[in-house]
Specification:
The chain contains 2 helices and no strands. By secondary structure, the protein is mainly alpha-helical. The chain has one domain. The radius of gyration is 18 Å and the shape is rod-shaped.
Length: 92
């Protein structure tokens, strides 16, 4: 089983693929947002920087990833809705 988010108007992709990709991206964005806002202590980082700076860099990184995956979620959801509208219009 694989998930595919493609750019362009490919009518061969299923609605199921689009909605599963959207749900997967939504879950990842929520997880990243949670870590960025409420993560207690982020470990790792650059050894010669203070812990506060490493934590800030980690929060910025997780927040950026959350925003990117949320953008992917909106794109996949838009593709799903486009397919539903196209299918409804073709049945008329």
């Amino acid at each position: 089983m694989s998930f595919k988010i493609s750019f362009g108007k490919d009518p061969g992709l299923s609605k199921t693929s689009s909605i599963l990709g959207a749900l997967l991206c939504f879950g990842l964005s929520i997880l990243g947002l949670y870590v960025a806002l409420f993560g207690n202590k982020l470990s790792g980082g650059v050894p010669f920087l203070p812990d506060e700076v490493n934590t800030l860099m980690g929060r910025i990184t997780f927040g950026s990833g959350a925003l990117f995956t949320f953008w992917l979620f909106t794109y996949a959801l838009r593709e799903f809705l486009r397919k539903v509208r196209t299918e409804k219009d073709s049945k008329k």
